[in-house]
Amino acid sequence: MTESPSTPEPKDPGSREDRFRYIGFDVFPKEIPRFWQSDKEAEEFRSQIVHGVGVSSIDRDFSLLHDEPMTRIDRVILTVAGALLVAGAIMPWVSYRTTAGTNFSMSWVGALGTLFGGLGTAFAGGLAVGLSALLSLVLVIGSPVLGAWILASVWRSAPSPEAHQMRLRLPLKLGYVLSFAGLAIGILALIGGRIPGFENWGLIDPGESYNLGTLAAMASYGPYIAMGMSLVAGVKSGDL
């Protein structure tokens, strides 16, 4: 006759304190600090539970529930960013020194008209050149529009803080679109191309070529400010 296997004896689970330390992987210090700030606070909390009046007073002053997504500093930063985007409409967007030794500058209005009128010619010089012109048009049109939208969203009254945040979220996220459009223009300029009649612009020895060096020589501070302020708006959208 074979002997039936004996049932193993259960292991000693140990003390209550050891079990809790095992469950928590001993991540807490040996002496856990007191949660309640005082006996009075603990008694007030128990009283709220008994009478069913809520537990809102348990919030601490340092709780993230009291953290303001839109602080006064954020409002100032977005106001400056929006104002600079709007001011891009009076800034020079193209500026370079001609082969004749004179300085040439083109305003936002001039850049807008040139891009509209020369979009077909740009695509005739290659896909990279055409896409660069198209994205430049997006950046030129979108900058003052986005700036005005941000200013209106920041300063227009809202029925609640939540409604204010929801109103700001979309225009701030669109800031990424304009900043990435500017980045894409630079990447496309690395590919380059040829623009028929480009030598008539009077740039220093450009021929008909379009590349990153030509773009850097032509761009004034207007597009850089537009891309920078758009990026500021996009980054802030992650806090809402």
What do these coordinates show?
With 240 residues, the protein is mainly alpha-helical. It folds into two domains: 37 residues, no CATH class; 169 residues. The chain contains eight helices and four strands. The strands form two sheets. A two-stranded antiparallel sheet has the order 1-2. The longest helix is centred in the last third of the chain and has 31 residues. The chain is elongated. The model has no long low-confidence stretch (mean pLDDT 79).
Record the SSE blueprint.
Blueprint: H1 16-23, H2 39-51, H3 72-87, E1 92-97, E2 103-107, H4 108-124, H5 127-155, H6 161-191, E3 193-194, E4 209-210, H7 212-218, H8 221-237
Antiparallel strand pairs: 1-2, 3-4
Helix pairs in contact: 3-5, 3-8, 4-5, 5-6, 5-8, 6-8
Approximately how much beta-strand content do the residues carry?
A: 5-15%
Cα-to-Cα separation, first versus last residue: 76 Å
Number of helices: 8
Structural class: mainly alpha
Computed over alpha carbons, the radius of gyration is: 32 Å
Low-confidence stretches: none
Strand elements, count? 4
In the sheet with the most strands, the strands line up as 1-2
How many domains in all? 2
Assign a percent range to the helix content: 55-70%
Give the H and E element order.
Answer: HHHEEHHHEEHH
Q: How would you state the average pLDDT, rounded?
A: 79
Shape assignment? elongated
Q: Sheet bearing the most strands, described?
A: 2 strands, antiparallel
